[in-house]
Amino acid sequence: EPTVRTELMEQIPPIAVFLQESRPKFPTAFFEYLMPIVVRYLTDVNNQVRKAGQEALLILLEQDLVAQSDIENKVCPILLDLSAPDSDDEYKVEAVNIICKMASMLSRTTVEHMLLPRFCELCSDGKLFQVRKICAANFGDICNAVGQEATERLLIPKFFELCSDSVWGMRKACAECFMAVSYTTSPEVRRSKLSPLFISLISDTCRWVRQAAFQSLGPFISTFANPSSAGLYIREDGTLSIRPSAQDVNSNSCQPSNNITVMSSSANAV
User: Fold this and answer.
1) What phi and psi, each to the nearest 5 degrees, are found at residue 87?
2) In the chain, where does DSSP find H-type helix?
3) What does the DSSP 8-state code read for residue 185?
4) CB-based contact 203:240 (threshold 8 Å)
5) Distance CA 82, CA 96 (A)
6) pLDDT tens across 3-58, in order?
7) Most buried among 31, 80, 160, 165, by the most CB within 10 A?
8) Cα angle at 69 between 33 and 81, to 5 degrees?
9) At residue 242, what are phi and psi to the nearest 5 degrees?
10) Which InterPro entries match (predicted)?
């Protein structure tokens, strides 16, 4: 019965905590018995059981109860299989979602070598816009998980694609996570690449995208180490433009303030 398997999954985390606390008495019980069940239920035929399995896995990862070897040899391979191009649509959407959620809980090396290539592929999934939407919504978290070098080399090109996606919901999701993406890049990339990209979002044909971009304007500016070097200002018609570095700031400029300093501090938590 699916309800029995679902209830079982809900009991796995507390049992795992007990086994961890009593490890001298049960040194291998979790790895030999419980972890295989969690992995198996990620592919269960019943979606409620799969959901319970996914939630259990995330709790186990968050509490650092899963061994690195199990993550690399058991968890990641099954998620890569479920998110493959020929995978069932429902399984793929669920796999992408859990990959994005678990990225912040894994080591940078594991994410970059095992999950990042598949994430980049999924950003360009032409079959399911739901997959691209999940990627766009979690883009900032993935950037933060892999760091600046991988972000600029592999993720920024994909971010450009998503920011020009034909589905407006995708562009809106990109606008909402723009600050998190910008925070992971170098000042030069922010100035030369992300600033023009942000202008395209704030000038988007869809009002919902423009609204999300305007709400992200302050947080985006806060990611610049020196607010006065942001090079952005608001024109009289309300559009964002880039100011040449030698030009004086006019009355419409985004003036540095204490608020920007505070927001910059909060960005460190991203």
Assistant:
1) -75, 160
2) 2-21, 29, 35-41, 47-62, 68-70, 76-82, 89-102, 108-110, 116-123, 129-137, 139-146, 148-150, 156-163, 168-176, 178-183, 187-189, 195-202, 207-222, 258-267
3) S
4) yes
5) 9
6) 999 999 999 999 999 988 887 888 888 888 889 999 999 999 999 999 999 999 99
7) 165
8) 85
9) -100, 130
10) ARM-like (IPR011989), ARM-type_fold (IPR016024), HEAT (IPR000357), HEAT_type_2 (IPR021133), PP2A_Regulatory_Subunit_A (IPR051023)
